[in-house]
């Protein structure tokens, strides 16, 4: 995953799968119900099964590079369905969180075993 400055997913949870990140380059701020952690190059972050609400954000001016794994597989279909293809290294601006786009995100997230929470949920 390449996470541009200011990028990262909003608060979400997934009870049926485990997610982990290894920070290859840069840093991300990870928030969960248990606190906040700044993961820098070489850090490993594990989100266990069970539905912990979490999010992360790149608060730096450098693109962060993460190796992400999800077990069991299948979440990649969520990204295929919701994403738009771009050239390597190119990033689209985040979509506006209008009611219609938020509803679409929530519907697709639920289809792939996730819950989406309001942007300020973990503040």
Describe the fold and architecture.
- The protein is of the alpha+beta class.
- It has two helices and nine strands; from the N terminus they run E-E-E-E-E-E-E-E-H-H-E.
- Strands 1-8-3-6 form a four-stranded antiparallel sheet, with no helix packed on it. A three-stranded antiparallel sheet has the order 5-4-7, with no helix packed on it. A two-stranded antiparallel sheet has the order 2-9.
- Strand 4 and strand 5 form a beta hairpin.
- The longest helix has 13 residues.
How many H/I helical runs? 2
How far from one another are the termini? 25 Å
Number of strands: 9
Summarize model confidence as the mean pLDDT.
92
Contiguous low-pLDDT stretches (5 residues minimum) are none
Radius of gyration: 14 Å
The biggest beta sheet reads:
4 strands, antiparallel
Structural class: alpha+beta
* Estimated helix fraction: 10-25%
**How much of the sequence is in beta strands?**
25-35%
Give me the strand/helix succession.
Answer: EEEEEEEEHHE
- Main sheet: strand order: 1-8-3-6
Short description:
The chain has 123 residues and is α+β, with helices and mostly antiparallel strands. The protein has 2 helices and 9 strands.
